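User: Could you walk me through two proteins back to back? I'd like the raw sequence and the structure tokens for each, with a short line separating them so I can tell where one ends and the next begins.

Assistant: Of course. Protein one, sequence then structure:
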Amino acid sequence: MILLNFLRPCFHFCTAFSLLFFIFVGTSFAHPVKVGVYENKPLVYRDAQGKYQGFSIDILRYVAAQEHLQLEFVSGSWPECLERLATGQIDLQVGIAVSPERQKLFAFSEQTLLTNWGRLYRNPQVEIDSLLDLSGKTVAVLDKDIHAKVFTELMGKFSQPVELKIFKSYDAVLEQVEAGSIDVGIVNRMYALQNARHFQVEATPMIFNPIEVRYASPRGESLSLLRSIDHHLGHLVADKGSMYYGSLEKWFGKDQPAETPAWIMPLLAVAGAVLVLGLIVLAWFRKQVSIKTLELKEINKTLAQQVDQLQRIDTDLHASEELHRNLLETTSEGFWLLDTEQKTTVINASLCRMLGYEQSEMIGKCPFDFADEDNRKIFLAELAKVPDSIHRSYEIQLQTKDGSNLPTLFNATTLFDKDDKIIGSFAFVTDLSDIKFSSAALQAEKELLSVTLRSIGDAVITTDINGRVTFLNRVAENLTGWSNEDAKGHGSQEIFNIINEKTGERCASPVQRVIDLGRIIGLANHTALIAKDGSIRSIADSGSPIRDAESKIIGVVIVFRDTTNEHRLEEELLKGRKLEAVGVLAGGIAHDFNNILTAILGNIELACHHIPEKEGKVAMRLREAQKATQRATKLTRQLLTFSKGGDPVKGVASLPELVKESADFVLPGSKVFCEYSFAKDLWQVEADSGQISQVIQNIIINADHAMPEGGKINIDCANVEDPVAESLLSVQEGSFVRISIHDSGVGIPREIIDKIFDPYFSTKQHGSGLGLAICHSIVNKHDGYLTVDSVPGKGTTFTLYLPALLSGVSKVEEKPKIFRAVKSARIMVMDDEEMLLDLAKSQLEALGHEALLVLDGDQAINRYQDLQDRGTPVDLVIMDLTIPGGMGGREAAEKLLKIDPNAKIIVASGYSNDPIMANYKEYGFLAAVAKPFDLKALNEAISTCIINEID
């Protein structure tokens, strides 16, 4: 029994020893996998017994068991884990989220452990419901946390200023939020599920940045380990009964299995370690006794070698110190070493040169002693971040010795001893003067480019490679109806909405065509832009690709211009050419027709002159025929308006009186009334009052017909000093008076608005189609413009532009003189129509005169000179202005006046508005008579020339 009691503990000892021995021996031959761990429960954390636990640890341990791997956990903060993974100090990192930036640095497993995301937790006293409420708030984040990075980018897009506070753990983040020193903290979802309830914080509805959590290794290393993890994790995820789902329930479900008592495993480990240590020590002492003698013999030799080695080390230390000193002195950046009180202990020559001080002047002083009040606050704020923020980088202005400000970049690092106690800090100081200057120059160039684009006369739209609008200049804003800010991010087809003006069909996106073809393209003909308000404008120009330095297309620029007015002006020119062609035809017809009317009217009048009063019925019929002929005369005068002889007889006109008289004349008894608006100091115009009155009356009549139920016509008159600002004026300079006549009638359909000025085009049942054509011709011959704009159902606006008379000189009409006619005279008549010559002879004889008849200018000159030579001169000559194929009245008058400067000549023409007819005295004529003329008009013209002047 005594032996049994003695052997039992020995048996247990040997068993434990054997177990520990095999463990010791087995692990000594394995290659341990170094695993980076940090505090992020329930993914990974260290429990009260010092063991590493968590969902990611469970899966890793399962894989290690399957692959016979030994795991060695390397603990640290999250930034330290990332640093170790980047430098290869660890083989594997657990609980790491995937991002494009990290994939460039590390190798990741293909299988995803789970999906995580970030969430914001707030202090209960802080009211925050959305990202917009974060403006001006302080936000606590984990150092190097991917959620913090995404959050910063997100707030930058919203242009919301927030102040970030960086901490080494999620616990520290929530502690600061709970204490109220921080408004909001960012933690990941998995950590919050297990730990947020331990803090007096409240979850906000702001959840963002869903990410995949995996395992990672240094790039190019331990790839076989990642493949093993992918293999086993894939099988675990596929099997719903696997330990993967059991671990999920364990860490994220309601019930968690009890843990093994914490004291058993440490006790066994300590006991085994003591036994093993005892055996090792015993063996070591035995060996030491056997070799002690040999070692003593080598002591003197070893000591001598150590002395030599120490001397070499001392030499190397001096060389290393000298090397570091040279590096600090030769670097272009300033070096600043501070003690725990932020006082300067070491500086290099570069820093002295930057600030203009000697080293002795800076030693013992604090950095903020070299800054003004505002920058001193920046220094103190950065110092307050120690020790939570080990590395700090910030811009600050230092004051040089001469008092000037020097912009610098401060890269400060806190120094710790082996016990993590702060022993000081150091900073590298970079002079930013050149960078700031370059940045300012770049900003100025950018501003110049922006101003140039916004000021350019053409519209400019730029897009990215996806067709999203990035910029609109001011002209593009005006044409599209979109502001630059509102348009950014929208699809180009929404902003640049173009159609075929002829068919109304939507055009293909020029942006996509440029991207597909990779070259400059032009917009098709008849392209129209639909603005945001629905208005349509004709446009023209091109789209071009935007390329980067490598000639890769990164966007598209569309440059276009509004050609609406150009098209309208082209239409106006076309109308003018059409009217000119009609004018040529009308002039010829009117001349011949006038001659016929002259014969008819003259003979009717002569017949009336010779019929006795008792023949009343015949005289009545002749007077009716005479009236009908006079109405036909008015029609010929309308046709003459188109001819080259239809120039106006101009005089100074005051528009307010002319416009009112013309409009009121045609509206008596109508349901339509006019409302007038005349600008103060309205300029006068030089115009034919009769013709302009006819224009206004024709337009008013049309407006009256367009409003059968009655309505109002607005007539506005204003001065135009800048013709470029007027949409349809084709001139660049000059002064005009604008007359706008607007009705609220039925309007003019779009399909016929281009035809309303065409001769003989009319929508009225009894219209002649000459009204608006005559208006257009009259305004053109006044060197003016007539335009029309109409919206069906809303009304029509006619706009007249007449050249203004700014000289202030009015034409003074001559006082009519009173004359007394002689009894009879010898009168020569020149006309190419024998019928008219016979009529003229009869008319002159009826008036008591003698008539001499000639067919052209040559006969007139020869006959006049012959009669003068014979002593029986002609008293008066009446000359037709136009002689087809012969010398007309103008040329004949010039030659006749050379023969006899006192010759008395009357001009006659069917072109009543011919410039010679309007200004006959300038061409040597004493009077003018328009065909067809009656006896009264002829007698007045003759009496004007061959009378005795009476005062």
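----
Protein two, same layout:
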Amino acid sequence: MKREPCRAQALTLALLLAATPASAHILLREGRHRGYTRLVLTLPAGATASLSPGGMMVAKSANGSPLALAPPGRLAPFAAGRSGEGLRVALPAGSEVHAWRLGNRAVFDVRPAPHLPLPPLPPHHVSRAMLLPPPPLPPTPPRVAGSISQAQWNLPAQAFARPRAPHALPVANAPLPAAATTTLAPARRDIALPYAANVPIAAFRRAGQLLFVAASRAPPPPALLAQLHATATPLASGTELAMPPGLTPVVEHGAWHLVHGAVPPALTARAAHGRVTVPTASPGPVFSVRDPLHGGLLLVGTIAAPGAVGSPWRTPFFTLLPTSAGVAVAAHADTVQLRAIAGGFLLDGGPVVLPLGAFNATASATQGARLLDLPDLPLATLRRRLTEATFAAATAPPLARGPARLRVAQAMLALGMGGEARGILRLAANADARLATNPVFKLAKNAAAALHPEPQAPPASLSTAPCASAGEACLWRAVRLAAHRRDRASAAGMFAASLPILQAYPHPLRTRLLPLAAETMVKAGDLAAARTLLAAYPHARSLRLARVMVAEAALPPPTAGTGGRGAAARALDAVLAAYDRLALSRDRLLSFRAAFRAARLRASRGLVTPARTAAALARLRYAWRGDRRALALREALADARAETGQWGRALALLRRQASDPGIKQKLANIFARAMAVDVAHPMPPLRFVALVQSNPDLLPPGPPGEAILRRLAAALAALDLPDQAAHVYGRMLESLPQGIPRATVGADLAAQRLAAADPRGALAALDASAVAGALPPVLLQKRTLLFARAEAGLGRMPAASAALAALGTIPALAERARLLERAGDWPAASVALRAYAAATVPRTGPLDSAAATTLIRLATAAGRAGDPALLAALRAHDLARMAPGHAADLFRMLTDPAALSTADLPRLARTWGLPRGIAPALRAAGARLVPPPIH
């Protein structure tokens, strides 16, 4: 996409052409490319060129005669016109011009203006340091054209460019304090220093202390050091004092004093001709002192009269620090020089022309705390810096490669290469142990880890406490918190506080971090700060998703009133349409995230069913893999499948990350939901068995887990798998202590072993779960019945009968009679059935089917036992109470005196002409009964 030209006021690039003979011409070629226009000037022999203020290039011949432009009119698109000395070309305001020389050719790349500055954040995001007004830049004076040597043409492009200024928050345009010498009252004097008024000094705050530099070798007396709580360090031709902040040096009575609350006169820095000057009437020597902030060097210019730099100014090559007296410069490049000249101090780049177009007068005090060397330079220059740093590290001696590799890592960070920088830093740390205490190395290591997080979970030591100051360390802590999705509220606040530093970073790094900052603000609910950040970059393609996220966060809730339903629906449709457009992007990550958020938004608003949501999310499973975004997709897909009842597939999606505490809890929640649904709507046994046996680690402890295991055993028994059901109960029995729950599980285990025809195993289960003391009646009855069945299965009927008789309950009497009938002990069965009938059959009145069946069984047992008296009594007392039917006919035949045994019953039925339907009843009367289940 082409960038539109800026319509602001024009920046003028003047090509002053002076020729040799009339036949000497400058050949001009123009080419339009994607995002920039290239001008190539072929200079005749003897012609030289140089740069003048404002980006002007001056070309002259050897003898000063005019040069001709060939062909004429080629600069028409740039509004070319001849001035008094040559040709003037008007360019769009704020355009970037990159220049270099190839032999006798001068090449200029003209790019459109960068984005507009960032509007101010809300008041609660702006620190007090950001409200300090910068001194105004004076107008640029004219400069006499000079020549450029061949070596200068080979310099990086930023030497001839006007780099775009970092987007910075505008500050209040309040005037600076008036420059006037402070007159001190006697009550305000604090401490007198042993330095006369003509001794040049400098004082500035750094790393929480006041650094005082005096151009005198005389050490201060120990009493003064104790009074100031200061430490003295001798310099080559001076003395450095480090003391607590809060004091300002002033001149009174011919000597320097330290006082509280004094306002020194302001020193106004001026930028022109690729240099910075600080005018002062009494410049002194320049010292280099150690920076206590990160161990580097500071250039300190002393003065012999009160005067201070009010606001910090920053360029990619240096930072002019605020001072209480004198000038202090933190150099970011080895070519930066500070020296005293007549009338002040001169700050320049030595052989390099400083790109003062990036001179940031609105930099806050927090930017002075930057440690990493990440200048905002063109991409080609950043790549060249990386190449040069890599070559320097490769050619350095082995024991000197640690600092060189640190510079390589910083060059990689400037290009957004976090993984590569992390590898270089690991190599540097292994080879040079001194880097472990280097603050720049520590911050670079954190920055690389933030840009390229480790695949495993974040360390538990990652601090979420508020930053002490909005410095560079605070910014990278916010990046790490946001990358690991931890405490987004704290991360959003840190991003807002350290935003000026982020804006001053190079473009590749800003492209990586700005979307993260904006999206973190949205997720933390700080929409005002996010909108302010997005408004500063209206055309940034990397922020497209963040813009739609802001629109989504601003949507009304689904339960909004009916009055705004139409507007809410239109806003929702617009957000979904924006997500769908981004989902078609060629950027895989952007496409995946947009499609994922669109699917979740449709599901949360009830626009699609859970089944369709699951299908949409399933299509994205292979669109992005390998980080927490893919894990978040699997979590959402698991929730959608759980909504449709696909519990097994939902749990299988998250099984690989079961070691993650958060995923483990989510698995437990899905399993608990499945079990709760099973209580109301039981699953098929096979599906329930598969679900529980695939997720044994998700069983809850205590009674809920025991209930699930009992349900599992019942499902296994329903599938005719008694051995597997017994195995489940056996596991439960091993894990339970002595008590009622253990006795209950033992009874269940005994029942399953009886179902598997294992009476000895049943007795062993009952013995292993025996409880000393009283049992609940229901449990006691269940265990007694199981014991009797197991004993009967082993042929020990006396023990079984005695146990059931001792219990005496109706189920025990019924079970005793049944066991005796199965054993063929008809006399004992007759006695047991008489006891059971006495407890269950009414003495008078009609008989129901259950009572009639009991009497038929009793009559059968009496007949087989040869007890005619009991048969006669039954016939006389109960035959008349039975309702006509098969049961009454069968009872009549069983109690007939002519029936000598049950074998005579079919003969009697034919003799009496009874219906054929009586035959099954006759066979059932002589068959063994099936034992009822024990609950």
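The chain has a mean pLDDT of 76.

Let me know if you want the two compared in more detail.
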